[in-house]
């Protein structure tokens, strides 16, 4: 049994040795094949280099460049597709932003465009307003610069292209109707008091306008100027309405596009401030000069200076102020150019008359068909008054090309008062 086991082990060892020898032969064969493959690869590489004229390093570089080129083309195609998609949606998105901004600009403010009316209790009161030989009503029209219409029953109608004058006249007339002392001197006294009251009203209106758009702590003079917006129109559009609307639109746009909201807020609020500033030049120039005097930030000044494209836009904020102004002014029904031209013509009529020496004041009435001129009796006599009236009439007709005839009424009134002395 032991001999059989020994014989089996020897047989197994012989088989293992044979298998090992076979594996060694296969390994040698594989080494030869690997060497042949390497030799052939090197041979082919040399042949390719000769045919292409490139080394392996150069070929590798060329391959990388080709891959990068293909990648760049793919990236460019993706970018182009995204740009086209953005173009398709840009118009819709911009419309949504503008419509949303205009919705934020909606106001509940109602502006006064028509003449003012004051109710009266009876016709007897109208007679007292007229006065003996019309002295009271002449004094009232002279002091206020408005045209008084008494034809309609139950009301007195006050007409003037200047809304500040009309407001002063309305308040003064209401006081006179409650006062039993209706006479020229009393009329002048009440009108003067009312002018001071209207100054306070303009201060309050200016603060209200500024606070509604989020601007606080302005100087008193600036509040008063903003308050004049209540009594000023631009192409028939009340400046308070326009400024509120434009500023709210501008603020919303600034939030949407990530602009400086405070610069846009102030730029919109003060963009038309030059329209209530006295002086020579356009309202843009007058507004810029005013803001410089009050040391406003340069971006705000630039926004005002550029809102009519008088200068190239210097910032995103300037563009927003310009767009907001255009949106507010261009919406249907916002403006009526004929009204603006009408008011401008009447103002020029008055300015022409005031340039003559001896003229204290001038008021345009009847839609520009009549110009009443107040003469200083100490500077001009009756004959000189007639001559001045004629010159004013000729210059107005020639310079303004007013249709029809313009009636110039020169008023020269000399008053003398003697105080009474009582001897006890």
Please explain how this structure is put together.
This protein is mainly α. Helices cover 64% and strands 8% of the residues. It has five domains: 1-43; 54-90; 116-207, K Homology domain, type 1 (Ribosomal Protein S8, Chain: A, domain 1, 2-Layer Sandwich), CATH 3.30.1370.10; 232-335, Hypothetical protein af1432; 347-412, 2-Layer Sandwich (Alpha-Beta Plaits). The relative contact order is 0.06. The protein has helices spanning 2-52, 56-104, 123-130, 135-144, 163-178, 184-212, 220-227, 239-257, 261-270, 283-293, 298-305, 316-330, 337-354, 382-400, and strands at 116-119, 147-149, 155-159, 233-234, 237-238, 359-365, 370-375, 407-412. The N and C termini lie far apart (179 Å). It contains 14 helices and eight strands. Mean pLDDT is 80; it is low at 108-114. The radius of gyration is 45 Å and the shape is rod-shaped.
Helix/strand/pairing category: mainly alpha
> Ends: how far apart?
179 Å
| Percentage of residues in strands | 5-15%
Order of strands, main sheet, comes to 1-3-2
Instruction: Compute the CA-based radius of gyration.
Output: 45 Å
Give the number of DSSP strands: 8
Secondary-structure element order, N to C: HHEHHEEHHHEEHHHHHHEEHE
Mean pLDDT: 80
- Largest sheet features: 3 strands, antiparallel
Q: Which term fits the overall shape?
A: rod-shaped
Q: What is the CATH T-level topology of the largest domain?
A: Hypothetical protein af1432
Oligomer status: single chain
- Give unreliable regions as ranges: 108-114
The second-level CATH architecture of the largest domain is Orthogonal Bundle
The domain count comes to 5
Q: Helix tally?
A: 14
């Amino acid at each position: 049994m032991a001999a059989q086991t020994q014989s089996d082990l020897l047989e197994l060892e012989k088989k293992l040795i044979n298998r090992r020898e076979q594996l060694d032969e296969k390994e040698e064969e594989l080494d030869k094949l690997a060497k042949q493959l390497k030799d052939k690869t090197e041979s082919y590489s040399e042949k390719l280099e000769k045919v292409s004229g490139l080394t392996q390093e150069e070929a590798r570089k060329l391959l990388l460049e080709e891959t990068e080129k293909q990648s760049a083309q793919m990236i460019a195609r993706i970018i182009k597709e995204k740009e086209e998609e953005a173009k398709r949606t840009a118009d819709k998105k911009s419309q949504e932003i503008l419509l949303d901004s205009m919705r934020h600009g909606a106001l509940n403010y109602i502006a006064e465009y028509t003449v003012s009316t004051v109710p009266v209790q009876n016709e007897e009161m109208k007679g007292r307003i007229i006065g003996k030989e019309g002295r009271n009503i002449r004094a009232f029209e002279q002091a206020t610069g408005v045209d008084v219409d008494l034809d309609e029953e139950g009301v007195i109608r006050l007409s003037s292209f200047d809304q500040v004058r009309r407001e002063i006249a309305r308040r003064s007339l209401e006081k006179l109707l409650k006062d039993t002392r209706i006479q020229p001197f009393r009329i002048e006294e009440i009108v003067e008091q009312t002018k001071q009251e209207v100054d306070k009203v303009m201060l309050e209106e200016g603060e209200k306008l500024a606070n509604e758009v989020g601007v606080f702590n302005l100087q008193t003079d600036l509040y008063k100027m903003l308050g004049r917006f209540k009594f000023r129109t631009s192409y028939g559009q009340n400046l308070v309405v326009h400024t509120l609307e434009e500023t709210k639109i501008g603020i919303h746009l600034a939030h949407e596009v990530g602009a400086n909201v405070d610069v846009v807020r102030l730029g919109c609020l003060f963009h038309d401030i030059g329209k209530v500033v006295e002086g020579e030049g356009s309202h843009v120039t007058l507004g810029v000069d005013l803001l410089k005097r009050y040391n406003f930030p340069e971006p705000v000044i630039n926004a005002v200076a550029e809102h009519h494209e008088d200068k190239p836009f210097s910032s995103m904020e300037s563009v927003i102020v310009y767009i907001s102004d255009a949106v507010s002014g261009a919406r249907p029904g916002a403006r009526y150019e004929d009204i603006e031209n009408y008011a401008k013509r009447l103002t020029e009529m008055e300015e022409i008359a005031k340039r003559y020496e001896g003229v204290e004041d001038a008021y345009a009435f009847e839609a520009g068909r009549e110009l009443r001129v107040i003469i200083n009796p100490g500077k001009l006599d009756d004959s000189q008054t007639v001559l001045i009236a004629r010159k004013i009439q000729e210059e107005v007709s020639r310079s303004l090309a007013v249709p029809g005839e313009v009636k110039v009424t020169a008023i020269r009134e000399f008053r003398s008062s003697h105080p009474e002395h009582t001897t006890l």
